[in-house]
């Protein structure tokens, strides 16, 4: 079972999820799953299509925004828009959750959210955003 790490009411991030985690995610109220992990990054990871099928079968939407290294401006904007448009909480995942929270937090910072608030939310979820977000 994956480690869902709540950041705020809108977003939770997680290390790699499994198909079986999608029923739990739906039961916890998530409406959208964002996969920030490229397919084939590790031979042991489940294919994105399998996670997508499980998410949709559980009644959630699914979005694949694969991030390699740092997110591009387009990836940041895609994630920002998807989280803002979601009609409920979003679960984003990658290998460790880092790319997911970084991509989301950059979008929030560019939208004008307070940097320190984002850094604090990241810390509470177990991630250090202090070196990622613009001062």
Automatic annotation (TrEMBL):
It comes from Caulobacter vibrioides OR37. InterPro entries: BLH_phosphatase-like, Prot-tyrosine_phosphatase-like. It comes from the Bacteria. This is TIGR01244 family protein. Residues 3-111 form the Beta-lactamase hydrolase-like protein phosphatase-like domain. Signal peptide: none annotated. GO terms for molecular function: hydrolase activity.
